[in-house]
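Co-fold these.
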Amino acid sequence: MGADASDLSLVRRVQRGDKGAFDALVLKYQHKLVKLVMRYVRNPAEAEDIAQEAFIKAYRALPQFRGDSAFYTWLYRIAINTAKNAVVSRDRSPIEYNIDRNSEESYDMQGRMKDSETPEALVLTDEIRSIVNAAIDALPEDLRTAIVLRELEGLSYEEIAAAMDCPVGTVRSRIFRAREAIDRRLREVFEGGLGRAEELG
Amino acid sequence: MNEELDSQLSAMFDDELASAECELLARRLSRDTELKARWERYAVIAAAVRAERGVRLNARVARRVSVMLGSEPALAGQSAPRRSERRWLRPAAGAAVAAGVAAVSILWLRAQAPPGAVVATPPLAAVPAVRVTAPAVVRAAPPRAGGPDSYVVPPVARGAAAVVPATELANYVVAHSMFSSPVARRNLLSSFMTSEPGEAGMIPVSTEGAQAPARDAKSNAQ
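Predicted complex below.
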């Protein structure tokens, strides 16, 4: 196994014309990218707009991505440049997106772009966070330690195995079981993708 | 859902899955909405654990990007050469350059050799044979009593222009390599190779104070 093999396999699929693989990359990195952009803009909705623009730019530039660096490192640079440009041009003109106005779905999505600013959306974020935290607290200690070392400290499986004095396979199993336990609780909120979130939005 | 598949998905999310398995799972992930929804929840869990301030966990960035990509052309056939496909080029190019330099060096040395002389390009095992020839050059120098010892310069008639064939001198240096440092030896040999074409075959040397290298001949004979 190699670092970034997961992203690279998805990137190669996108480069071969599989747009669905790009969805997976966006799903994986959207929160990280929004957090990154929020170093430049304070408004979460604006940060999401910039992150969205960065993803579109990345998609268009993907044929030039050779895998010399990690995908996220490459995406990170695009997002930083997009955010800097957005900050510079913010006062001159609003950010425009090349959305197909004939597409009813696109229009509908644009209409819901402000959802993240609503009180319901804030409540939902808090709700998700408390569900995850409660689920983690309820985990057996070995599972909790494994998932926290992975998600919070960003350790590799090998490093976690050394820290917990167990085989790498056990670490993989513990992290998976921890995720499954949290996911069971989270699924109620995310029923059907963003089921409840859609209702609240 | 298959537990093994979910376990692989969890490992893939952490970049801890073998490349070959990633390839297979990536194909399925791009098509299977249920698997994709689980993948999305894994990302939400990660963001929630990190408690990223200001980041909406129900962010619709992914959905909006997906809708916008609907009007984008697919990227098939536009990808840059894969890193792994180009990986063999570097060592191959390096080997080609090294072989070229070696070939040019050999040809150059042959061109610089005195007419009728054969430039020896012996393998390492043949080096002692070169050592044997060196005392012959030295033996031509008559010993002079009372003077200082010299290990490199054969004496020539005083006042005459003294020249030493570069190839012979190079052989001599090689033969006496045990008495000189590797750096000095390399420098001397380099100077033979980089000397001007008119001088290349013969290296002028000073004969002032030169005398027979009696001790050197003796040590080589041993």
